[in-house]
Amino acid sequence: MDKLTPLKPVPSLCAVIAALLIWFVIPVPEGVAPNAWHLLALFIGTIVAIIGKAMPIGAVSIIAIALVAVTGVTNPGKPGAALDDALSGFSNQLIWLIGFSIMISLSLNKTGLGSRIGYYFISLFGKKTLGIAYALTLAETVLAPVTPSNTARGGGIIHPIMKSIADSFGSKPELNTSGKIGRYLSLVNYNINPITSAMFITATAPNPLIVNLIAKGAGSEFELTWGMWAIAALVPAVCSLIVMPLVVYWLYPPEIKSTPDAPLFAQDKLQALGRTTLPEKITLGVFALLLVLWAGVPAMIFGPALAVNPTTAAVIGLAILLATGVLSWDDVLKHKGAWDTVVWFAALVMMATYLGKLGLIGWLSQTVGSGIDHMGMSWVGGTILLTLVYLYSHYFFASTTAHVTAMFAAFFAAGIALGAPPALLGLILAFSSSLMMSLTHYGTGTAPIIFGSGYATLGEWWKTGFIMSVVNLLIWALIGGVWWKWLGYW
């Protein structure tokens, strides 16, 4: 008889206690609906269980979905509606973009194209592991202005290349060899994404919303154009992109640091692979098609009527790979990581979404703004505090779009009321809206794709994310602030 898989008692108990304390002991604040507070209790309990690894993350998420449905916190008195709410995460397009991107990446390994790409990058930059990190950084930066989906860019395009390079060095989670190079490159791979997302209005979906919110909040005083945003981001972004691989290198230095013979080794491997096969050509064509569709090229050329949704593009790509036989349905079914990611990310997105819909996040942002006002702080201190609260509250979000929608306008208005220059405050909050992605393994769509590859542990991921959030904040607030002053933005 198979043994039962036990719960880890200590983290499980901590999760239960955290949820019960918030639900039953801590009074519901004035202005907050009881069911919103109870949903917060379930959400905090879920996060504690995930952090403590009480169970596999997918199992914790199924329990969370069940608790939301059973307790009816999203729709009191309507069990059927509460069940619909609990399962609503699975109807989120972003969830399936993540899942399909992971499935599509199978083709790189199955056809050998991934190895070919990996060896090619090594042939160019393989003398130093740090050189490979900067090659990935440059590649994503070039793609950023024309790729509105940061998930498609970092998770669907750059990550498969990063995996191929790590695999070529024999650095694989299943072999317990992530420390060779894979852990370092995966952490770099992810932490590029928040920085490039902050660089252009068109680099991630919430940025156009931020431009609109700033324009409404500041009136005619300050309105960001595409060029103004890009110029404002240029200097701090370049600094962050230079510093980030060095910080990660200091935190988790790869075992393989110098590989002087790697370029020649890679060339030998490329020759051994021979000519590009038909399955490789099909895979390469699919990735080129996805890049064109994700970048919005049809809409740019022919108008918005031919715009293709990023998730639709991913479905098309997967369908082509299945129809041509590059991937089989069994290949897709056996990819546990993809299905596991769909389950746990859907649960977190659902809970974070309803925390916003039920008004708890709005209450939090309003409370913070009025609290700072009553403290009598100057606009400088108020701006710093608002930025810190705004950025680090992303621990409670599984979507940057939801975070921006729930909190940006209130925090921007609170800062304006304190006397902060609209341009300075708007830029800091706008760029923080992307930089905060670094914090967690669920903070944006790119995160679960790269984290799901298993190169870094949860602790390593969160530690790196927090340290990078501090480094990026200092760079963008100090160097960025001086740069924006020189530009005359404030």
UniProtKB/TrEMBL annotation:
<keyword id="KW-1133">Transmembrane helix</keyword>
<feature type="transmembrane region" description="Helical">
    <location>
        <begin position="282"/>
        <end position="301"/>
    </location>
</feature>
<feature type="transmembrane region" description="Helical">
    <location>
        <begin position="307"/>
        <end position="329"/>
    </location>
</feature>
<feature type="transmembrane region" description="Helical">
    <location>
        <begin position="409"/>
        <end position="433"/>
    </location>
</feature>
<comment type="similarity">
    <text>Belongs to the SLC13A/DASS transporter (TC 2.A.47) family. DIT1 subfamily.</text>
</comment>
<feature type="transmembrane region" description="Helical">
    <location>
        <begin position="57"/>
        <end position="74"/>
    </location>
</feature>
<feature type="transmembrane region" description="Helical">
    <location>
        <begin position="118"/>
        <end position="139"/>
    </location>
</feature>
<feature type="transmembrane region" description="Helical">
    <location>
        <begin position="86"/>
        <end position="106"/>
    </location>
</feature>
<dbReference type="InterPro" id="IPR001898">
    <property type="entry name" value="SLC13A/DASS"/>
</dbReference>
<keyword id="KW-0472">Membrane</keyword>
<dbReference type="InterPro" id="IPR030676">
    <property type="entry name" value="CitT-rel"/>
</dbReference>
<feature type="transmembrane region" description="Helical">
    <location>
        <begin position="465"/>
        <end position="484"/>
    </location>
</feature>
<dbReference type="Pfam" id="PF00939">
    <property type="entry name" value="Na_sulph_symp"/>
</dbReference>
<keyword id="KW-0812">Transmembrane</keyword>
<feature type="transmembrane region" description="Helical">
    <location>
        <begin position="226"/>
        <end position="252"/>
    </location>
</feature>
<protein>
    <submittedName>
        <fullName>Anion permease</fullName>
    </submittedName>
</protein>
<feature type="transmembrane region" description="Helical">
    <location>
        <begin position="341"/>
        <end position="364"/>
    </location>
</feature>
<feature type="transmembrane region" description="Helical">
    <location>
        <begin position="376"/>
        <end position="397"/>
    </location>
</feature>
<feature type="transmembrane region" description="Helical">
    <location>
        <begin position="12"/>
        <end position="29"/>
    </location>
</feature>
